[in-house]
Amino acid sequence: MITPQDTVLLIIDVQGKLAEMVYDSDTVQKNISKLIRACGVLNVPLLYTEQYPKGLGHTVSVLDELLFNEEPLEKITFSCCGEERFMEKLRGLNKNNVLVSGMETHVCVYQTANELIDYGYNVHLLTDAVSSRTSENRDLGIHCIEKAGAMLTSTEMVIFELLRIAQGEEFKAISRIIKE
């Protein structure tokens, strides 16, 4: 079971026109939005990346507005782990569990998840918060990431796992987020 103390949320490349073109885009963006807000309530740190933003554009505005306190980590490698600045930030957080979300499942998400597993991190793939331009590539990416050793989870499942208890101010705040 994950806890807020040993977990980080990773949002990979939800940017530009690509974010609008992926399979089930609205649902994926809505779920990532819920994750960002829930992690804020539960004090779970997050990292987010942008793949070559000069060419692909920046993080979509619906998420960018929620990430105003954070700085995107720019990359040109498909795997986030190929960027030293990303690895420095991740290592500096000293967390074992990485919640992985973003785009595209069969490229950047897949390569990042595999490398994180190789580096000894516990990868939890948020299957309802990842996508690709086609549902087939999304599904293939999820399958290959699971075969590599990641745990499959969902937005609600992971939020309630982090919360653990149905009482108090955190529960009230999380309940409002989930109901949206």
Q: What would the keywords be for this entry?
A:
single chain; 180 residues; Rossmann fold; 6 strands
SSE map:
Layout: E1 7-12, H1 16-21, H2 25-41, E2 46-51, H3 53-56, H4 61-64, E3 73-75, H5 84-93, E4 97-103, H6 105-118, E5 122-131, H7 135-148, E6 151-153, H8 155-163, H9 168-179
Parallel strand pairs: 1-2, 1-4, 2-3, 4-5, 5-6
Short characterization:
This protein has helices at residues 16-21, 25-41, 53-56, 61-64, 84-93, 105-118, 135-148, 155-163, 168-179, and strands at 7-12, 46-51, 73-75, 97-103, 122-131, 151-153. By secondary structure, it is α/β, with parallel strands linked by helices.
Describe the fold and architecture.
The chain is α/β, with parallel strands linked by helices and 180 residues long. The protein has a single domain (4-179), classed as Isochorismatase-like (Rossmann fold). 50% of the residues lie in helices and 19% in strands. It contains 9 helices and 6 strands. The chain has a 6-stranded parallel β-sheet. Strand 4, helix 6 (105-118) and strand 5 (122-131) form a beta-alpha-beta unit. Helix 2 (25-41) packs antiparallel against helix 9 and helix 6 (105-118) runs parallel beside helix 7 (135-148). The radius of gyration is 15 Å and the shape is globular. The model has no long low-confidence stretch (mean pLDDT 96).
